[in-house]
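#struct-pred
JK: can someone run the complex with zinc ion? inputs below
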Amino acid sequence: MDIDSPHPEESDEILKENVWRDGPYLVLRRKKTQLPDRCILCNAPAEGKRLSFRVRDPHAILEQANVKVGLCPYHRSREVWAQLRGWILMLAGLGMLALADLLRTNGIPYLETFAACVGVLLIIAGGVYRRVRPKLLTAKRIERQFVWLENIHPDYLAEFRDVAIEFES
Ligand SMILES: [Zn+2]
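RT: done, structure tokens with the ligand placed:
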């Protein structure tokens, strides 16, 4: 059954058709799903701001989904800084490589080698950090149409119907 609307509106009806809970997980359609204007991590007002996350299926590395969720100012700045940190390390690495080039043209070979090594290490560190940093939002499972998100605040979850309970009763 596919009830994706070609022109989704942010109405309660569409919200209920596209989002529900499955025990401790929030289940949503991967495409065109609008979430409430609240922080998915602490349920505080999101003030109209959304942040995109790429989540991966822990059991199928190639399975990824992009989700757009509301975050409060605190969680938003935490996530943005966490993303920036990796880029800053990599940019600093590029800066060191540029410095190494400058040192070479000025005939300072030992410092040039040192700067180049530090530059390469910074770029690697930035790349590794971007891969392994703890994620604020993770997926429990991803399927063709749906994604199961974890670490959702209980008050946020409480607003959605629980399919786990409906299937049991
Ligand atoms: Zn929050």
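RT: quick notes.
The two ends are 23 Å apart (CA to CA).
The first helix runs from residue 12 to 18.
JK: thanks, will look after standup
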